[in-house]
Design goal:
The chain has three domains: 83 residues, Winged helix-like DNA-binding domain superfamily/Winged helix DNA-binding domain (Arc Repressor Mutant, subunit A, Orthogonal Bundle); 96 residues, Periplasmic binding protein-like II (D-Maltodextrin-Binding Protein, domain 2); 94 residues, Periplasmic binding protein-like II (D-Maltodextrin-Binding Protein, domain 2, 3-Layer(aba) Sandwich). It has a five-stranded mixed beta sheet with strand order 4-3-5-12-6, with helices on both faces. Strands 10-7-11 form a three-stranded antiparallel beta sheet. The protein is α/β, with parallel strands linked by helices. Helix 1 crosses helix 2, helix 2 crosses helix 3 and helix 6 crosses helix 11. 28% of the residues are buried. The model has no long low-confidence stretch (mean pLDDT 91). The chain has eleven helices and twelve strands. It is rod-shaped, with a radius of gyration of 32 Å.
Length: 295
């Protein structure tokens, strides 16, 4: 309420008249008089004195006017900053695959639009990300899964991510146009860490088709997996986006893995209770493709 009183005080000081201040503010003169009286009661001083037909500031009034001007300026700045929501931190949880191979170009575009927003990337597996978004510890989650839904979350499919079997160029599967579960019989598999959704899918498919295999290596790092495959230590299932550079250099072969359960999508999730600041909505718009051309 004192912001209103200070605004009225500034107008009276500006015009030297209760009547003129009331006209400029759209108030009754009695309302202006009451507000000034309440300010004087609050500060315990006289702020304005009458000299002839004009109201003049006392020494206390002159001091308060300086603060009132500063408060007005800061209030206007705060309204602009809050309405723009151009500062602050946007927290995003995602898996290594998407953090390394999907997000960087999009984060660059977002930084151009919102240069003062700090984007904090929190790595983790899908269960951790989903729970953190629900709890409000993360603003946004970006996951790689079959189509996902949850009554507490807004879920947006951004695009399908093809999964491929990667092998060294001289591997027997390198010449195939596609790979089925049966083609992996007795193959040495290099796996991502436990908790990875596409790893879980592959193991489920192999078990369901009674395909025997050798779990040769297990890594929590994609680069280690690719290096081992390059050296002929086994084959691996990875999203195609993770091996684009190696494919262009002829270091790896990538063959589509074909199975009805092998349909994975990059998806964005956030809480239905989430308040959408301008910078938050800007990220949703960009990542959904409205202002960004997907690669």
């Amino acid at each position: 309420m004192e912001l209103t009183y200070l605004r009225t005080f500034r107008e009276v000081a500006k015009w030297g008249s209760y009547t003129r201040a009331a006209e400029m503010l759209g108030y009754a003169q009695s309302s202006v008089t009451t507000q000034i009286q309440k300010l004087e009661e609050s500060y315990g001083v006289v702020l304005l004195e009458r000299y002839g037909r004009a109201m003049k500031l006392t020494m206390a009034g002159e001091t308060l006017l300086q603060y009132a001007n500063d408060i007005h300026r800061l209030h206007e700045e705060s309204k602009e900053a809050v309405s723009k929501q151009s500062k602050g931190t946007l927290s995003i949880g995602t898996i290594e695959t998407l953090a390394a191979f999907y997000l960087p170009s999009r984060l660059k575009a977002y930084r151009h639009q919102y240069p003062e927003v700090t984007v904090a990337i929190q790595p983790g597996n899908e269960p951790f990300i989903i729970e953190s978004v629900k709890e409000g510890a993360l603003d946004i989650g970006i996951i790689l899964d079959p189509p996902f839904s949850d009554p507490e979350l807004e879920c947006r499919i951004l695009r399908e991510e093809p999964l491929v079997i990667i092998a060294s160029p001289d591997h027997k599967l390198a010449g195939h146009s596609e790979v089925h579960a049966g083609d992996l019989e007795k193959e040495s598999l290099i796996m991502t860490e436990d908790g990875c959704t596409y790893r879980a899918m592959l193991l489920k498919v192999l078990k369901g088709n009674q395909v025997s295999y050798n779990l040769a290596y297990e890594f929590g790092n994609l680069e280690a997996i690719k290096q081992c495959v390059t050296y002929g230590l086994g084959i691996a299932l990875l999203p195609r986006i993770t091996v684009a550079e190696e494919l262009s250099k002829g270091q790896l072969a990538a063959i589509p893995f074909v199975h009805e359960e092998c349909r994975f999508y990059t998806q964005l999730i956030y809480s239905k209770r989430k308040w959408k600041a301008k910078a938050f909505e800007g990220f949703l718009e960009l990542i959904s493709g409205a202002n960004y051309q997907n690669d």
